[in-house]
Amino acid sequence: MWDHVFVDEVQDFDKSWLIQVVQVAKSSLSLAGDLHQRIYKRNFSWRAVGIQIQGSRSRKLDNSFRTTRKIMKTALQVMEPVKLVDHEDYIEPNMPRKEGEPIVIIEESNAQMAFSRGYDYIAEKFRSLRSKSIAIALPFNNQTYEANRQLQRRNVNAQVVRGDDLGQFEQGVAVTTYHQLKGLEFDHVVLMGLGDDIIPGKFLDRVAEEDIEFELNVLRSLVYVGMTRAKETVTLVCHNPISRLLSNIDRDLLVEWN
Length: 258
Description:
Blueprint: E1 2-7, H1 15-24, E2 25-31, H2 69-79, E3 103-108, H3 111-126, E4 133-138, H4 144-153, E5 158-160, H5 163-167, E6 172-177, E7 186-191, H6 212-228, E8 230-239, E9 254-256
Parallel strand pairs: 1-2, 3-8, 3-9, 4-6, 4-7, 5-6, 7-8
Helix pairs in contact: 2-6
């Protein structure tokens, strides 16, 4: 038993996990989560696992202190089709105070050209940075090694980083996947591979018809998570047709890199 228990990323906890947590907390239980970041199914209520959060027993935290207003506004547009506002646990977030820079979009006619221009952009913008953390995120693990090789060819001192090493990453250019970004933060984030044939395309290849809508929402959450890991800037590297996950973004919020 523990006097006080704090649970982070609670939006992804399984029912059985929470039942166990309730049993080991003697004095207080604190839950921190964000429905926008949910990537697993959850079909139970707090009451069903023995957690009472009504009235004075709960405190809702609605401020974002990491990212910028422009990044958050764009990321929330990615999540609009999920209709989280109808969820009983949804909290309308307050927008961050710092305005920040517009999100940069790189758009090409095919994947090869988009990836190449993305690597050129990273070399131009981040090669000389020494005290900043830059995350280069790709949809799949097997893409990270080629990305790292291409960046090394452009004299970018990048490295493939995952797991605990990524959590301790403080400076330089880290090449990783969308999934690995969860729970972390970086000064700059570049999201690669945002063509519809890759994301969601390749993720949906083996998904049953009845699960497609849920999987699309999971992928929207992954993009949202990736964008909101950034403290300063976000760059989206896309090829046509651009991922449907970005279809709700107001193009006036984006700046093209030429």
